[in-house]
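Case 635 in the screening queue. Each case pairs one protein sequence with one candidate compound; here the compound is coenzyme A. For every case the pipeline is the same: read the inputs, emit a complex structure as tokens, and attach any notable structural observations.

Predict complex for case 635.
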Amino acid sequence: MANPYEIAHKQSIADPNGFWGAAAEDCHWYQKWNKVLDDTNEPFFRWFSGGQMNTCYNALDYHIDSGRGDQNAMIYDSPVTDTIKKFTYTQLRDEVARFAGALAARGVVKGDRVLIYMPMIPEAVIAMLASARIGAVHSVVFGGFAAKELAVRINDAKPRVIVTASCGIEVKRIIAYKPLLDKAIDMADFKPDYCIIKQRPMEPASMIDGRDLDWDDATAKAQPHDCVSVAATDPLYILYTSGTTGVPKGVVRDNGGHMVALKWTMGAVYNVQAGDVYWAASDVGWVVGHSYIVYGPLLKGCTTILFEGKPVGTPDAGVFWRVISEHNVKVMFTAPTAFRAIKREDPKAELMKNYDLSNFKALFLAGERLDPDTLKWAEKSLNIPVIDHWWQTETGWAIAGNCLGLHHFTVKEGSPTKAAPGWNLQVVDENTQPVGPGEIGALVAKLPLPPGTLPTLWNNDQGFLAAYLEEFPGYYKTADAGFIDAEGYVFVMSRTDDIINVAGHRLSTGAMEEVLADHPDVAECAVLGVEDKLKGQVPVGFLVLNAGVSRDSADIVGEVIQMVRERIGPVASFKTATVVKRLPKTRSGKILRGTIQKIADNTPYNVPATIDDPVILEEMEEALIGIGYAKAKKE
Ligand code: COA
Ligand code: AMP
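Case 635 output:
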């Protein structure tokens, strides 16, 4: 007999209207939709057309109206400031309503953009929900990005208001955010009307008269603002993510489909209910933070944890266990890299023994490939289900996973289990022809995508078509390669573009190459993601210098490292580069990235028949050995 997962998956594909229409009944609507799935403008599918609702109402007020006002909505746990602060649903709603009033008082109206550049403090979540409350579109930018990246996003989103904090705290280091924001606004062509700054006592910021407002002042004087009715198809947020060029893509999320899908995933994927404590240890600047620190858990009526710390060093590798036991966390979600960091410091999980983890029921991991060592270590130490699930900024929730709320499948190492309901996932060849079970190809999803996924890119329908829909007509291109086995288990192998995953952070090597190429002494360059025991992958740069450059290579390497830090940000973790005489290329001039990568990762490689000069590979080997990488021998 079919299990609940199989029933749900089958129905979601055969009858998406029935399936998602039923899920939508679990939400509050000012006005119900005319159509669940609106296919009148294919391939731009829309969900819940005609529906009117408000995401913030569903995430806060709805629970107060249903009697959960005194339940904790959010627990801010900040080992870096030694603070724990709890907000009930009523308290959080009141703070959000006041900040919504402060935004409205600065002229922010439905459809305006609000850019949020914040560390992991409650005001970040409050600003997101306050934007949603008045129908404004938020765009959160991760704090580890540099001023230039911020400027690019300001120019694209054109925010009326930017919200920031005076500083963030990276373990023990204070990172001043405000000077980065000032620099970004100087660089940007578009200028916001106002900046609202949360002053933190560790490093208060200087203010610019007429433009900058103090968060506390602005909220103290504000009138609480009620929820504004928006169309289900109106945008809730824009989240920029790395694309195949240095230009980031503004992934758009709508209100209605997002609300329905995320609330549904809390039960079906994560197996949590209203009242449960759910913790995503990520950052609000990433999609995991949007979906599972803020919206998912609050839409479901859970208590969410906002953690301002790191898995290690704040103060030790036991902090995750402390948070889980102290706040009664039932389900946790993080990236494998966090567990690798803990395992490295506390290989026998000794620190775990100091805490009562009896209420902890499941660990979910995503953001990068889950290596079998980390999976086994987590399973053995915790003795609870450890679930790998695969998703992307674009999709907003899992494409594939072991949907614990429906059926717990046996885990196969290296597989995020099966396509989630709503996803008609297939593997195709370059002619969009399906390949057989176990055969590697492009992982694609047959259109329409389920609700909650990106309807388009911000102000860039053509870019949306070109990036995702054109290569495989009728399908969404995930840009991941992999296979599906005979039992329907999905295996995600590698990206088919230049995206790398560094400590669960998505970065484009193309963007880094653009920076290196800008150095006056660099004639040509390549950046590759090579294997790293902690971060999964790290970028490594190869530089070919202009003829006649006689400066010390070490100086040039130091300069390009600094340039990447300044232009992209510390999050790029670009710390290694080397000068080479030339780059290995095919006769038609394409850099042999795959071969260099294999050499670096110590994987046997063949000398490609198309290479213009095989000696270059030996030079590459030497260069890699010089910077501590491997010495694989050709087959
Ligand atoms: N603001 C400013 N700088 C930031 C930042 C932020 N919000 N987040 C990271 N950085 C900086 C770090 O301080 C570091 O700077 P450094 O080069 O001067 O040391 C750099 O960006 C790289 O950060 P990170 O990749 O996080 O490495 P790390 O060495 O500080 O920590 C881990 C390693 C594994 C502990 C850490 O990556 C981690 O906790 N990962 C969890 C994964 C995660 O949250 N993924 C999100 C998607 S689920
Ligand atoms: P991001 O948009 O930052 O979430 O990154 C998405 C990319 O991360 C995917 O396209 C994959 O390449 C990778 N990824 C995310 N989750 C997994 C996973 N569980 N297994 C393998 N790769 C993953």
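Case 635 observations:
- The mean pLDDT is 95.
- The two ends are 49 Å apart (CA to CA).
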